[in-house]
Structure formats: structure tokens, C-alpha cells
Records
---
Amino acid sequence: MIPMALIIFFGFLVLGVLVLVLARSGSLDYEKTRARLHESATETLAYDVPEGQDPADVIVGLTRAGYPSVEDLAAGACRVLVHCPHGRTGDRPRIRSVIEQVCASGALRDDVHVAAVRFADEH
């Protein structure tokens, strides 16, 4: 009975350590992406997320589409910074399309109107 309890205990201990290592790795990757997107040589688009929409939905949708993105905390408003590997003009239509799809399928409050996707440099 005691050997089985020790095996279970150490199994959970190893599983817990593994989860912590994976979480830390993901956090470090996100911080590397954040630092890279804030470099002046990196071309980015900034999208101001409307109130009622979760920026995490936008970030996940863009990342799955191949556009690394992070929430820009320095902007004051809820803003997502998107990496443009082919330049702003080349990636703008595709990024706009991805965000529109996220807005159409994402969880928005009932009273939120989905407006046309506009980037910060288009205002």
C-alpha cells in the first residue's frame, strides 16, 4: 500500500513540475515576441480592440493565421500589436480579414456592434 502511495505521490510531483516548466516556457516565448514587436525595425500594425471584445480572441486568431501578436499594454487602450512579416501594406488585407473572422465568430456582448476593422494608423 505504501509503495503505491509513493508512486502516485511522485507521479503527481513530476506532473506538477512538468506543467510549471511548460507554463514558464510559454511565458518566456510570449515575452520574446513582445520584445521583438516593440523593436523599431519590426513592421507592425496596431488594432484597437473594441470594448466588449476579448483581445485574447484576436491574439489567438492572428497567431493561428501566422501573425504573431501581443497585447500592447503601453498604449493605454486595449490594443493588439501584430507583426507584419511581409510589410504593413502586404499583410494589412489578410490581417484585417482574420480579425473580421474573429469578430464574427468570437464571444461579444449582445449590445456590442461589430464595426469595420480599422488599424490605429488609419484613424
---
Amino acid sequence: MLSTMVSFDVHVVDGEGIPVPSVEVGARYRYPAAPRTWSAEYTDGDGCAHFRDDHLEPPTEVCLFVGEDECGTYTLSDGAYFVLEM
């Protein structure tokens, strides 16, 4: 079975633009035909979470979460970079 690798980064900052380390970032993926899936990563010391996931088909959108707070739904392409403010 073929799969599609999608990589993207999420940079989490506080209200002053300072990176937030060690926070969980969740990603819920939406596909054209397949059921939604979910993955999570933790931010590193620079406040960046690196997502590298195999998917059965290319996801069209990703809904991002920081902890349990929904941060919006975005169009997803390989290599995308998102900045989320806590």
C-alpha cells in the first residue's frame, strides 16, 4: 500500500513572541476520502514541534491544538510552517 509523507512545523510562542518549550501540539488531519486521523508532538527548546507523518492519502487540512485549546484549521501542504500564539 502506498503512503504519503507530510512534514510541517508548528512554532508556539507566548503573547510576547517568546518560544514556549515542552508543550503538546496536536494535529487532526482531514482527507478527501479517508477518515480523519490525529497525531501529537511536543515543542522543543525553541518552541517548535516537528511533524513527520505517513498518511494513506494526502491530507487537505489540519486542525491544530495546543494542549486542549483548538487553534484553527489550516490548508496543509508538505513543508508548511505555522506559528501559534498561546
